Description:
Number of strands: 5
Largest sheet: 5 strands, antiparallel
Shape: globular
CATH topology: HIT family, subunit A
Order of helices and strands: HEEEHEEH
Low-confidence stretches: none
Distance between the termini: 31 Å
Bound molecules: zinc ion
Helix content: 25-40%
CATH architecture: 2-Layer Sandwich
Radius of gyration: 17 Å
Number of domains: 1
Strand order of the largest sheet: 1-2-3-5-4
CATH class: Alpha Beta
Strand content: 15-25%
Structural class: alpha+beta
Amino acid sequence: xxxxxxxxxxxxxxxxxxxxxxxxxxxxxxxxxxxxxxxxxxxxxxxxxxxxxxxxxxxxxxxxxxxxxxxxxxxxxxxxxxxxxxxxxxxxxxxxxxxxxxxxxxxxxxxxxxxxxxxxxxxxxxxxxxxxxxxxxxxxx
Length: 141
Ligand SMILES: [Zn+2]
């Protein structure tokens, strides 16, 4: 896609520090890392959302993330844990609209984390949980 930063990285029109590349996937370092070693795993095919990705490609992205996770743990990159993060849509924090999976090295007090909405500690009732569960199940095929 013409104006997509990640498509330009795939074609080489924009530079990147590549970690891994095959016919379907590319993994490279995020230029604005949360922590050193923050990797992005992307499909070579331009798709905005995770839901548009072929299951096989998505599975390959997860499998590659596992390999990168293992490699990071063997390296001397500072980490005590690793987050996988996929922002699916602008409201979820997606900034580049080409699906990507973050692999983020984490350590205690690194300053990164989620913020929770007010009322988060008030747990919903079982009835409410069951109702929401049914709403999702209805469309899970
Ligand atoms: Zn793209």
